[in-house]
């Protein structure tokens, strides 16, 4: 490809909305352009990278005999209402009505559609197992699209689905899919972890995430150096012991707390430790409002709460809903004097708080010395706290360590959740009708690009691993007005093309500095510079990630390029903590 013909409008300045390096460099390097928040065009360079990621994912799916198909983006609400996920998925679903006022969604995922398909096509155990996949656009109405391709409203995903007559078959495909995902990570060249994960709105009784390590990642990973435990913080149970507070129970006291709402404000105003405060959080779900209690110094794990209550539609109640239901503003709500017949679910930490501070159920009021059993009751108990670095490992008890990552792959054992809801049955060998056993396997194709750039970049731009680089070699002709440079550049360009190497020749009539800057920004693995030494049939060659340059004869370029590409291994950019 000739740079003079390539549509690649590179930028010198950082985009105003770019918060992370991958977003900045993908825009500046002319890989993507924003249409609106969370929606992007893929320019020619971006499409070349995307196609290579796509190819690797497809090859690994094909290697485990998954069969590619394509499903519709537009999905009728009826399918989602059958499984209960029309409400569970929440406001991230892109919902709309057609001209006949029928409800539809732009598919965020395809469990319902593929189950509907198999319900009508699979009738016997003899047709099982079967695994299908697609690579297609998905849509989620993110509240705050950010980080470029990492949190987009339109994105490209590979989603696969397997159907089985027994759990052993599901486990076999599940393990094969995990191995295929590891191969994807290795072929691309990413540093990653496989972690136990929450199933969320997808459902199922077992799931794992494939996380590309990055300091800016939104997945919080906890791991144990001693036993090898690895899981998301949403999944990790708390196994530590709570200490009983040794003090006498004191009489309940209502005190004035003008304008004091948050845990921090209450602790400062009343001169108490956060551990003495019980937070009262209100959530709305299918069965109405529920109050959740947790110690003031701890963070509630909403995924644990949803899983415990078996309600993925749960969300924090709005101030208006709280006022209407209880008649008290958020910040002053508490379990003491709660007149409503409302379920109260508490984290285990609440059992051990003596003489606690809780909301006073009136504006500018809090209770001191609230005690469980005497002043308030709890209907149900559960582990609801967010586990953090330093907490004990649930396997061996050693202190957990933490890091961050970008979720790229997620595999689920769905079981019969969808098949039972949608009546997708088959006749087993004993003549009985049984629900299909399912697995689900997703891979973020478009976000993989950003994950790679987060690990492979420097202060000049991207450093693509050779597996997905848009071109393998860039030939820079320093001065297009020098005939010998132009001729030698063209000769090398043609020689590399004939050898099957993807090469970009920079034949633009611009300054050498801009050419070098663009080459570094775009991140092509090998750079060949054709300059003043062209008269001696010599050129300069260098790796993108190295400052070392070598002068070689033009006749040796092809062999030198192949040797560099064979050994090409750029360092992963990671801080020490990650």
Q: What can you see in these coordinates?
A:
There is one protein chain. The protein is of the alpha+beta class and 578 residues long. A hairpin with a 2-residue loop joins strand 25 (457-458) and strand 26 (461-462). The chain starts with 20 loop residues before the first helix and ends in an 11-residue tail after the last helix. The protein folds into three domains: 21-237 and 401-454, Bira Bifunctional Protein, Domain 2 (BirA Bifunctional Protein, domain 2), CATH 3.30.930; 253-382, Alpha-Beta Complex (YbaK protein), CATH 3.90.960; 471-567, Rossmann fold, CATH 3.40.50. It is built from 14 helices and 31 strands. Helices cover 26% and strands 28% of the residues. The model has no long low-confidence stretch (mean pLDDT 94). The strands form eight sheets. Strands 3, 7, 8, 9, 10, 11, 12, 21 and 24 form a nine-stranded mixed sheet that branches. Helix 2 runs antiparallel to helix 6 and helix 2 (44-63) crosses helix 11 (445-455).
Summarize the structure.
This protein is α+β, with helices and mostly antiparallel strands. It is 26% helix and 28% strand.
């Amino acid at each position: 490809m000739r740079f003079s013909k390539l549509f690649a409008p590179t930028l010198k300045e950082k985009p105003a909305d770019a918060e992370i390096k991958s977003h900045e460099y993908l825009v500046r390097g002319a890989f993507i352009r924003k249409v609106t928040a969370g929606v992007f065009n893929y320019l020619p360079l971006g499409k070349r990278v995307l196609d290579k990621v796509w190819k690797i994912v497809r090859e690994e799916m094909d290697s485990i005999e998954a069969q590619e198909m394509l499903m519709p983006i537009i999905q009728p609400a009826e399918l989602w209402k059958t499984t209960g996920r029309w409400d569970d998925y929440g406001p991230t679903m892109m919902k709309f009505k057609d001209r006949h006022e029928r409800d539809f969604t732009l598919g965020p995922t395809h469990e319902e559609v593929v189950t509907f398909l198999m319900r009508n096509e699979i009738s016997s155990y003899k047709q099982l197992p079967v695994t299908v996949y697609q690579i297609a656009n998905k849509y989620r109405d993110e509240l705050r699209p950010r980080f470029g391709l990492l949190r987009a409203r339109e994105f490209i995903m590979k989603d696969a689905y397997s159907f089985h007559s027994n759990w052993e078959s599901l486990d076999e495909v599940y393990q094969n899919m995990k191995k295929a995902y590891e191969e994807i990570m290795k072929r691309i060249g990413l540093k990653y972890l496989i972690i136990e994960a929450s199933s969320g709105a997808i459902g199922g009784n077992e799931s794992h995430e494939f996380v590309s390590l990055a300091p800016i990642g939104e997945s919080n990973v906890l791991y144990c150096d001693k036993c090898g435990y690895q899981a998301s913080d949403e999944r990790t149970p708390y196994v530590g012991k709570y200490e009983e507070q040794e003090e006498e129970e004191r009489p309940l006291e209502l005190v004035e707390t003008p304008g004091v709402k948050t845990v921090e404000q209450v602790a400062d105003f009343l001169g108490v430790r956060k551990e003495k405060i019980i937070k009262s959080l209100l959530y709305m779900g299918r069965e109405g409002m529920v109050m959740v209690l947790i110690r003031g110094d701890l963070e509630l794990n909403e995924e644990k709460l949803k899983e415990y209550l078996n309600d993925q539609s749960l969300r924090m109640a709005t101030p208006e809903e709280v006022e209407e239901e209880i008649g008290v503003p958020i910040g002053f709500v508490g379990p003491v004097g709660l007149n409503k017949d409302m379920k109260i679910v508490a984290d285990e930490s609440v059992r051990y708080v003596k003489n606690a501070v809780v909301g006073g159920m009136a504006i500018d009021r809090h209770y001191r010395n609230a005690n469980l059993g005497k002043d308030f009751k709890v209907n149900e108990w559960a582990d609801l706290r967010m586990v953090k670095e330093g907490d004990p490992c649930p396997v061996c008890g050693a202190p957990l360590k933490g890091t961050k990552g970008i979720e790229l792959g997620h595999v689920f054992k769905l079981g019969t959740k969808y098949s039972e809801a949608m009546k997708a049955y088959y006749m087993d060998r004993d003549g009985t009708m049984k629900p299909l056993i399912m697995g689900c396997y997703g891979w973020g194709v478009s976000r993989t690009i950003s994950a790679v750039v987060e690990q492979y970049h420097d202060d000049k731009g991207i450093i693509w691993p050779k597996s997905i680089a848009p071109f393998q070699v860039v030939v820079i002709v320093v001065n297009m007005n020098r005939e010998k440079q132009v001729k030698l550049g063209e000769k090398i360009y043609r020689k590399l093309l004939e050898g099957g190497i993807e090469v970009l020749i920079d034949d633009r009539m611009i300054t050498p500095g801009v050419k070098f800057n663009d080459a570094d920004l775009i991140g092509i693995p090998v750079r060949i510079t054709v300059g003043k030494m062209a008269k001696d049939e010599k050129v300069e060659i260098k790796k993108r990630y190295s400052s070392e340059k070598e002068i070689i004869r033009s006749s040796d370029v092809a062999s030198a390029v192949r040797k560099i590409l064979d050994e090409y291994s750029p360092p992963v950019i990671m801080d020490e903590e990650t």
